[in-house]
Amino acid sequence: MDLKITDSVHIKNQKIFHGKEMIFSAKPSADIIQFLKQAYKYLNVSYPKFHKMDGLSKLGILGTEVLFQNRTIHPETALIFSNSSSSLETDKLHIEAMGDIVSPAVFVYTLPNIIVGEISIKNGLLSENVFFVTDKFNAGLLLDYSEILMEDSDVPAVVCAWIEWKNADYDVFLCLISRKGNLAFNKENLEELYHFENE
Amino acid sequence: MKMSDLRTELKRSIIEQLNLEELEVDDIANDEPLFGDGLGLDSIDALELIVLLEKDYGIKLEEPEQGKKIFVSIDKMAEYIEAHRTK
Q1: Where are the domains of chain B?
Q2: Is residue B5 packed enough to be buried (19+ CB in 10 Å), middle (13-18) or exposed (0-12)?
Q3: How far is A179 from chain B (nearest CA, A)?
Q4: Is the ipTM of this complex over 0.90?
Q5: Does B47 touch chain A (CB under 8 A)?
Q6: Domain range for residue A142?
Q7: Residue B1 neighbours by CB under 8 Å, 6+ apart
Q8: Sign of CA dihedral A23, A29, A34, A36
Q9: Does the pLDDT of residue A199 top 70, yes or no?
Q10: Distant-in-sequence, close-in-space partners of B4: CB < 8 Å, separation ≥ 6
């Protein structure tokens, strides 16, 4: 099957890259809360629900805003997401609150796959989605799952993602996979793209 | 506390607790519907409002259904709080 890596986005170390071009950077001293607020404003996102989300979902919303901009996204575009720390940061917040009255708004984000729901709602997607928790970025897993999905069904495109948030660090990599583009969708290219901002 | 002060306090708490970051106190009318076409709050927000009543005013709603009659507007919430608050 002739699949291509159509586009990609990285978010890490207070910076957002669209492909290999840096489109936004905050001060290195900006923590994740400050960075997310500044990036939301810079990208001119108008979505009040954003402010209610946990950090993981906010990273996913901002990443897909960049990936989907100036594009018509088919509602059947599948989401194949992964990370290592699951929803750990929000889990910790929830546990801290357990001595008192817990917050329902925090509790709802104590699952990592909430992020794919938030992205689907925001973008009107009615598609397949999955969230894998793996030790590290696994290009082979994302490749295999995407190929199976696109070969065996009418899925026109896939967003493969690694969205990790642990302590103060975040590492986001999103790839739009479709039949358009010049870069072949294979393990080597996927790993090279991921490591571009991680070297 | 005056009712007008309670209403302002409520608006501040709701903006903070529900992360309505794009709203200011003056943007919320006292009689504006909190759900639906008004502020557009959702079901999770309703649960947060139940938590807010208990934490800030010592009011424990036994039945979540009660919320439908209380969380109509800032006016209705303030009236209920004034009549039932324990702190």
Answers
A1: 3-84
A2: exposed
A3: 38
A4: no
A5: yes
A6: 4-196
A7: B9
A8: positive
A9: no
A10: none
Alpha-carbon distance of B35 to B15, in angstroms, equals: 14
- Give me the number of domains chain A comprises: 1
Cα A69 from chain centroid? 15
Interchain contact, A105 vs B45, CB within 8 Å? yes
CATH architecture of the domain B3-84 equals Orthogonal Bundle (1.10)
Residue type at B62?
Answer: E
User: Mean pLDDT across the stretch B4-15?
Assistant: 94
Output the domain CATH number for residue A72. Answer: 3.40.47.10
Distance from CA of B55 to the nearest CA of A (A): 8
Q: Residue A176's beta-bridge partner residues?
A: A7, A159
What average pLDDT is seen over chain B?
91
Question: Which of A86, A88, A73, A100 is closest to A157 using CA atoms?
Answer: A73
Mutation for testing the A interface, residue in B14, B19, B45 having most A CBs under 10 Å: B19
